[in-house]
Every structure is written in C-alpha cells, then in structure tokens.
Design goal:
The chain has about 230 residues and is an alpha+beta fold. Helices cover about 40% and strands about 15% of the residues. The strands form 3 sheets. It has a 4-stranded antiparallel sheet. β6 and β7 form a beta hairpin. The N and C termini lie far apart (about 50 Å). The chain binds flavin-adenine dinucleotide. The site of flavin-adenine dinucleotide has 10 residues, from α6.
C-alpha cells in the first residue's frame, strides 16, 4: 500500500514574473507625457499613487506562482477573484497521499474571540491528540479512496472520502495590485492600518509571496508597507 506523507509546509515558488517598478511609472506617466520610457523610478510618484489609491498603474505586470498547499488553504486562496488559477484535478488524476498536519509549535488554542483571535500553543498532550486524530482520519480515508479506485470507481466519486487537509497543487497568476490586496488580507502585521486575522496556513504561503514580490518590485513594495499595507 502507498505510504502516507504528513507535512506542515506550504510551498510557494515564483515560476515567472513580468514585473518592475518602472512599468508602474511608465503606465502612470502616459496620462501627462504620452508614450514615455522612464530611466529612473521616482519613489515619490509611486508613494503618491499608492496613497491616492490610483491603482491601475500597478496592474501592468504579472506574477505566476506554483503553490502546494492543503485544500482548506486553496479554498481561501481561490476567493481572490482578481487573479487566475489552474489546479490539479481530483477528477482526472489520483491525488497525492500527502496530508497537512500542524507542527507542535503551531498555536491552536484560541484565548481571544472569533473576530480577534489570540492563539496560543496547545499542551503536548492536546497536540498529540490532534496529531493522532489527523493521522487516523487520513489513513482511513486514504484506504477507502484506494479501495474504491481498485473497485473501478471513478476518481471523482472516490475522492469524496478525502479530507480537506489533503495537499493539492496549482499555478496562480496575479498582478501587483491584486497581490497587494491579497497580502493586506492574508498577512497579519503591526504595520497594517486595517489589521487582518488570517488563518496561519494561508499566511505561511502569503509570507512567501510577499518576499518574492518585494524582490521584483522593491519601490512598490516599500510604498505598500509605508502606506500601512493598504492596496491601492
Ligand atoms: C480573515 C478573513 C476572514 C474571512 N472570512 C470569510 C468568511 O467567513 N466567509 C466568506 O465567505 N469569506 C471570508 N473571507 C473571504 C473574503 O470575504 C474575500 O472573499 C477574500 O478575502 C477575497 O478578497 P477580495 O474580494 O478583496 O479579493 P478579490 O476577489 O481578488 O477582489 C479584489 C477586489 O476587487 C473588487 N471586487 C472583486 N469582485 C467584486 C465584486 N463582485 N463586486 C465588487 N467589487 C469586486 C473589490 O474591491 C475587491 O477587494 C475572509 C477573508 C479573510 C481575510
């Protein structure tokens, strides 16, 4: 029987970027200069566009990421409509025997409220219980899945037994404006003017997106952070 893998990792890789700060400037300056080719990036202009929520100059770029994460993370990620997704199919292929299980240091007991959660670590006993429950459900569901497939049941029906912590893979393409909206909602930060409380697992992915974005468009990223992480 196939071995089941457990992981607490969310993987984000930058596949391709067509993105630069100077294209933001070029797009913005067409309004007063027509066709133009800036040889510097006036950071003041980028900050002013960001602060004034003049957002369309931040749309002339594209990032394509490969993401591997459990399905419950994709449920949240794919709510970001202003972007494009293609995901591994559970109808056309056998899913991978890989399940998410939080590591022991993942805070999982809420001492706050639903709207303003304040998570702390579980005791070792409680965490072991969580780990055991996740392990036994994953194993049982995977055995059922395999049994149905070997009885000739279609993937699209057999997958109905699988839990939402099974991993999936997708390509995600997004422009900088929508990416900043994603970051504003999916990363909790003291710098945010409007604080968000995302689920930690999507935040693991968003933090990787943020680091890759910062390298590609440093002036735009700096203006986003300086402006309280508000997407233009
Ligand atoms: C902490 C947190 C908790 C959440 N809890 C829930 C929940 O309990 N239940 C739930 O269903 N969702 C929940 N969501 C999802 C949330 O409501 C959004 O669907 C998700 O964050 C995507 O944001 P977005 O719409 O801004 O992004 P996108 O879909 O990428 O849209 C980007 C922007 O485009 C504009 N836009 C896009 N579509 C429209 C439209 N149809 N009409 C007008 N303007 C549009 C808006 O300005 C929007 O901000 C939660 C999100 C977070 C961060």
């Amino acid at each position: 029987m196939t071995e089941i893998e457990f992981s607490s990792k969310i993987t984000v890789k930058l596949v391709r970027a067509m993105a630069s700060d100077d294209m933001v400037v070029q797009a913005a300056q067409v309004s007063s200069k027509g066709e133009n080719s800036p040889d510097t990036v006036p950071e003041r202009l980028i900050r002013a566009l960001m602060a004034g929520k003049h957002g369309s100059p931040f749309e002339h770029n594209a990032f394509t990421f490969f993401v591997e994460a459990p399905i419950f993370v994709f449920r949240e990620w794919q709510r970001h409509r202003i972007s494009s997704f293609n995901e591994m199919s559970g109808r056309y292929t056998e899913l991978l025997p890989k399940f998410y299980a939080p590591s022991e240091d993942r805070p999982m007991v809420n001492l706050g409220t639903k709207m303003k959660p304040d998570f702390t670590r579980a005791t070792p006993d409680v965490w072991l219980g969580v780990r055991w429950q996740l392990g036994s459900v994953a194993l049982e569901s995977w055995v059922s899945y395999q049994r149905m497939l070997s009885n000739g049941v279609a993937h699209e029906v057999a997958r109905m037994v699988l839990p939402v912590n099974i991993y999936s893979q997708m390509y995600w393409t997004v422009n900088a404006r929508s990416l900043m909206n994603f970051l504003s909602l999916r990363v909790e930060s003291d710098d945010s003017h409007v604080r968000s409380y995302p689920q930690l697992e999507i935040e693991y992915g968003a933090a990787q997106v943020e680091a890759l974005f910062a390298v590609q468009m440093p002036a735009t990223y700096a203006a986003f952070v300086a402006g309280g992480r508000v997407a233009p």
